[in-house]
Design the sequence.
């Protein structure tokens, strides 16, 4: 039985012993190179390019159009640092972006809102859920997003910008931030569907042939649900905070979309909780089915043994070598004793059946 | 053992990857055709007709009378869309109406209130509870209701309008909305009664002859209760929000009716919780009764075996072929040994009885 | 094993499908006839009479004195209806009075306060707790009380009015309502004492001779406690609401009495919770004592069997019919083998004792 | 097994059926005579005397100095009544003082604050915790305290007054009330230490030799903790209410001492909760250790039996009386069969060892 | 099995029976000598010295620079007392500093803030977590810190002051207090990592070879987690109170750092809760794996026994000494009966395999 590495559970918020605000990348290095892309758009048009150095993004800061800078890969501390300087981000924010062991959270600095959340993906090969950290900074005319590696969850948003699908080009950066968050939350459903299939498979196995392996699988699912839960629960409060619209950065028209997303988050949480209920119900069924099976074995075997024990005793009696045992001399002694044995066996079977032990 | 499809538990709030507000019908197509009916009434009179195209309903929007448009069947996206345009409904609302995997909720747009809830029905054949989504839009002079299929729960309300029974014709659209919600909540009691009968049947089986099938049945009931609970719990908050009367659309005179309905909802929740308590009590009884039964079997059988083991040993001793075994030559050796065996058996039985093992 | 009818748990709030406010008596008809009594008093004097028709009560409504109308028996809908009209009670209130499946609750209409609660009584014969619904309407100069059958819980209050005992004659209708509620709450202690005795009896049985019957009894007590709890918990909030004194109908001087009653209610709830704790502790003890008993049986029996098995084997060896078995010819072979058997038995017993299995 | 009398759990708040405010002493009569002591002090001096009749205390009421009247023993209703009249205490307060089955609580009448709490003591002989009720009335220049019997917990406070130790003589009656409460809370730690020792002893027994007696002891400790908990939990809210300092009777300078005491109360509660955790952990260990022990017995015994069963079969085969059994005639048949038996036994032992069953 | 001394759980807040504010050192004496160090700094420069007598620190109180007095070792009551006098600390604060059994807490006296918390360290030899109490007093221009023994957790902060690393020299005493708290919280992660390793080791043992020792280890870890939890939970509220910034002593610029630390605290709590979940999952696995193992033993052994019992019976039958047993005389009787026995054995094996008991 192999558990997820429990080491993962100790999430260091920073390199211990360093002063707060020191920038160090903490976590696995998941991407080889860093990819920086910029999209700049308004209702009239849009511009998109992949830049080699972060400085190329800075001119967009001045334009009144919505600017979206996306950075895939976090191991180049210097890039994050320059970006932070240019956009006037607090050093603690940069520290949080670089440290991929954050708990989902929202921090509202008047000039910008900082959001950390977890993107989940299901690794079909390892059969486990992977979590990747996504950070967003929403300013008055820009959104900066950070991912641990190149991913495709945001592609659909890019598409909508390119093709002016929906209202995205007509709305401000807050709607863009919403669209990105929504893409992440939407993705949870895909992961949960995989989970659902896994649970169903385990259930079918549980019914057909429960083995110790089934048990371990159920325990693994249970543990993974725990970790999914930890990524998802804080989201509720996070989106609720956004939706309350206390920040001037969120337009009122975006509010209803956030409320909608909030409902989806509740649904994700509900589903996770149902899964947990189902899994613990399965554990109960497993245990009682194992014990039922064992009981069935023991019962039948003990019954067999019990029937033969008195018979063996009778045979033992007539195997004794006493000189004077009149029965031994009878012509029909042997036949008689076989009949007696048969009757004893039948009586016991009747008794067992009457007691419903058979 | 067959569980409800767990796939159901992953409720997709929308087709993933589409921009919010895209109208797609999500869920099973439960009705073949769409039926649209309109009722228009005030204290003086009423008008009722079934219309072929949704446009026929629009004139009623202008009248000062209360208009109730009911739509059974959700698979015709274009109809919903036209209705939405005409009544100025937000695209996200339309999306929610079309997606039958919503969690019960209330959203208050100043001009109208949007309510989603679940209608439960007990399928006697499949012996399972079915949930159908009902959406309501309450405006200043209209109520629009959406059902997944043609049903008869609202017939009683229609009757009251036709016959001016009760106060419904004297009240506004808020009372109509209340009447419709009330019909749904009332219906829960019918479903819960069926549940009660099912639990009672399982209980009787549990007492008479608990088998593994009983266990599975109990687990099924438990799981169904979980899903009923999920439909019912959010209702509490929903009706409470309505009743607090913060919306201008709810007249004060309707408040008391809502409070009454709130009490009924609490009662539904109470009943569901009691059922859950009863079911888990039944699980405990099942487990301990199975183990008691097993213990009883084991005990009696082991006692039988234990009595005969020493006797068989004695018989074995006198079955040995030693040349010099004086007892074997005794005239009454055989009789004596039978008596000794009898005494041993009686002593053991006495001991067992004294220890209360018999 | 006989459970309380689970059907009881589905409390219909009204006849399904009827418009709200339709008056139908729901519940068992517990009384044959309806008895209506009126008491009218102030500090100077009092008047008491049993009336045949409800109309005789109406004149008292005008007097400035405190009027208490008590109605035992709920099956005469017309009486309730007339009373409701005269005292201007909302139809939903009347519906609630007639439906004896209410949850305890308080509703504050400015002109009057409506209270529903449960009176518990212990049926010594059936050994179960019975719940009866009591409704109170407290107006500016009157209290109307409704019971399901003629009872004697309020007799003590009547006595105090007749004899001007305590301060009841000096106080207003709010104090009368308090006195009636207090009589009901007081009565809970009597029921709980019976419960305490029942639990104690079950405990003694548990210690002396735990059988499956004990288990079922414990489960029954547990279930009854659940239902008592449901009657008692809402009371807490109810009295707390009364005591906060937001209604103009409650005098400040009555406040302290309500606070006192609130404490009593907390005590009732505490006691019920303690009982629940005790009962579940008893279940644990039962289960472990049953399993200990089983273990003891199995252990001793298995030990007996195990000692004899090797001995029987030795006897078997010398029962073989090989032609050349030198020991069989020895003069003291038989004695020797008996000694060997004895030694084997003693060694095994020593081993078992050393291992503390004996 | 002897449980605490469960009857105790039903705490009657008053003699049922009496009007509120009727003075009756409820509870065990724990003291033979009533002892009344008065201390009167200010920064300059102090006066202390034991009085025979309560009237001797009344003159102190007028003095501006702090007056502390302590009454040990509650069965003389008339004394309490006179005191109540003199100090203008509400009849319900007197009722509460006399009824020793109160839940700890605080009631703030503007002119005075009434506090009920439980003093715990550990009875070394009966090995149980005893609860005694202490009531305090704090007025603008007096404190009246009531105990069920003569105790020594307050002696230390008396000492401090006599010797002007600490700041007690410089402070008002609120500080005196604090000092008395503090003495009671301090005393809890002594009781909890005893509890700690008891739990430790049970733990050691659990490790050394767990018997059914250990189980019952653990259950008893668990139940006692429940009752200690009931005395302690309400204290938290009580002291918190005092400390919020809404009453004009509490000086600001006393506030910090109350906050300190509040911390102590939290510590008491924490300790009780830890004990509960420890005890339920012990129950788990007990159960699994009993079942481990049983398993060990069963395993070894079954192994012994299983080895001998095939051997006995072999012996049985050669005990058969067939005329033609060639092996029986072999010269070395007997030796051979013994060797075969030995080999079978060794193989089985090897198999068991390989399977780690030995 | 050795539990942590449960005595530890009873934390005496003070020497019972002493007036509040009496200074007594409660707890183990962990250091031999007391070490007092002073650091005094501002942006321009810093001064650091180890002083022999506490009086040498007092001059720094007047300077506008930030002064940090650190005291390692608490057994010299006189030193604490002098310090208290000089810095005008409330006697209860001094009592709390000296008593090392405090619960983490924050008290806000307008002139200074008093903070108590627990420093955890993992003792590799004893394999247990040690808690040491750290107290902080934050004034307008000074911080005083108290530790139970000389430690190195604060060295890193000293370093930052010496080398003007980070912003510490530019900020006030509130930032210093933050830095010290942060050092303690950071340290928790180190301890939790050790815990993680311990749990992982226990898990591996659980998988490889679960013994009763594993069980006890799991229980120990569970209990230690409980005590870590008690140190960590109150921290949440403590830091939250600091961060809300109601005190004038906390600068706004420090607020964001406190918020950051708050997140870390939540992470610590989350990790502890995960560990608890993991440990209780391990307990479940242990129990079911032990019972599975037992079942496997019982099953195989019982099957062996059951196969031989009928065979032994057959052998017994032909071991009987009846005079007339025709089979005994048959030429191939012996061979035939061996064949019959073989067939019976094979049939039983087939049956067992069909039933999946093998």
Sequence:
């Amino acid at each position: 039985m192999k558990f997820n590495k429990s080491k993962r559970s100790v999430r260091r918020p920073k390199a211990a012993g360093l002063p707060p605000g020191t920038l160090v990348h903490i976590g696995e290095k998941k991407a080889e190179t860093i990819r920086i892309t910029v999209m700049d758009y308004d209702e009239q048009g849009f511009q998109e390019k992949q830049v080699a150095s972060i400085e190329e993004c800075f001119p967009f800061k001045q334009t009144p159009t919505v600017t979206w800078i996306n950075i895939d890969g976090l191991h180049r501390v210097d890039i994050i640092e320059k970006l932070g300087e240019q956009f006037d981000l607090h050093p603690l924010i940069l520290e949080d972006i670089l440290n991929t062991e954050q708990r989902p959270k929202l921090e509202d600095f008047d000039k910008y809102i900082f959001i950390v959340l977890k993107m989940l993906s299901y690794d079909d090969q390892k059969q486990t859920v992977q979590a990747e950290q996504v950070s967003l900074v929403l300013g008055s005319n820009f959104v900066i997003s950070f991912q641990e590696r190149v991913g495709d969850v945001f592609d659909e948003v890019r598409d909508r910008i390119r093709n002016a699908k929906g209202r995205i080009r007509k709305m401000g950066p807050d709607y863009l931030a919403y669209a990105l968050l929504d893409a992440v939350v939407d993705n949870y459903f895909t992961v949960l569907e995989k989970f659902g299939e896994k649970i169903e498979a385990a259930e079918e196995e549980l019914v057909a042939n429960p083995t110790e392996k089934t048990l371990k699988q159920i325990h693994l699912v249970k543990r993974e649900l725990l970790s999914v839960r930890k990524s998802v629960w804080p989201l509720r409060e996070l989106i609720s905070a956004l939706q309350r619209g206390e920040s001037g950065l969120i337009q009122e028209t975006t509010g209803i979309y956030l409320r909608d997303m909030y409902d989806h988050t509740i649904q994700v949480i509900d589903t996770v909780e149902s899964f947990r209920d189902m899994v613990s119900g399965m554990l109960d069924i497993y245990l009682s089915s194992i014990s039922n099976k064992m009981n069935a074995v023991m019962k039948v075997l003990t019954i067999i043994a019990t029937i033969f024990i008195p018979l063996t005793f009778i045979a033992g009696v007539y195997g004794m070598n006493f000189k004077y045992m009149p029965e031994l001399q009878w012509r029909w002694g042997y036949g008689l004793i076989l009949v007696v044995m048969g009757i004893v066996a039948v009586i016991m079977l009747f008794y067992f059946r009457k007691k419903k032990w058979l």
User: Anything to note?
Assistant: The CA atoms of residues 118 and 133 of chain D lie 5 Å apart. Chain D touches chain C through 67 residues (CB under 8 Å). Confidence is low (pLDDT under 50) at residues 1-9 of chain D.
